[in-house]
Amino acid sequence: MNLINIKRIADDIKTITIQGATNIAKAACKVMEQELRSQSFATQEEVANFVLKASQMLIDARETEPLLRNGMKYTKSKLNQWASQQQIADAFQEYLGRIDEEDKIRPEIGAELIDDGENVVTHCHSSSVVKVLTTARNQGKKIHVYNTETRPLYQGRKTSKDLVEAGVPDTMVTDNVAPFFVDNEYDNHVHTHKVFLGSDCIRTNWDTINKVWSFAIGLSAWHSGVPLYIVGSLLKIDPTNTIGIETRSGKELWADAPEWLDILNYAFDLVPAKCITWIITEFWVIRPENLLKEIEKRYPWMLE
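Given the sequence above, the corresponding structure tokens read:
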């Protein structure tokens, strides 16, 4: 059993070298597929042990990533059927194909919710949100995006680069001003029409875990009646509602902080369900009361 490449991807996930829920899940499933196609195992039991150990290493790399977890769960369900090594590799390939298919469908759905001339706010970096915004722009809609810098790792810079390179007018704002900026009831000089946020984890009550500071943006949008859309996926739902909110090393905030200083560095917070207008999925927009029904219909293995 060789876990060198699995550990490399797990380390890249831990250190945010690979970032974004979709990219993390794709990298994890891809390395699992590659290793299953390239390594040799003497027995079915050895294959099962490899899948279980390797998948757990990848899951442990980030706590708040159900898209990755559900990919591992989907493939583990094949072990119960005593599938061959090739069939398990095929299962990872199938899951990757499902993610790729979603990436083609969801931007068109999301872009329909954006009107010509609107100002849209987003936070952190979500490849799914970026695709929605660029699709709207490619449809000829004259939109302007305002995105946060996203401290402490500044993932918002990637969002700005992606948008500017795609020809989408973009302005960056500090995290601190984002809630004030979104709320249209005070002295903000720009009217916010809509907020589009990515999602790392969606709970069955519709609360959505996303990059820290999403909570403040969500409450601000709710306060002034700004529609807030979550760009997500049924595969990002945690049916057990047990996935927690990750905290990370305080060194991300202050590398040479005094030794006696404790630093609490939340990687995520959540957008309360009451702040969310719709969740945009691969199966169109979904209301919270229909989430479990859709899972039962589309992905019953998630509930096993």
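The longest strand covers residues 144-148. Try to locate this feature in the token string yourself.
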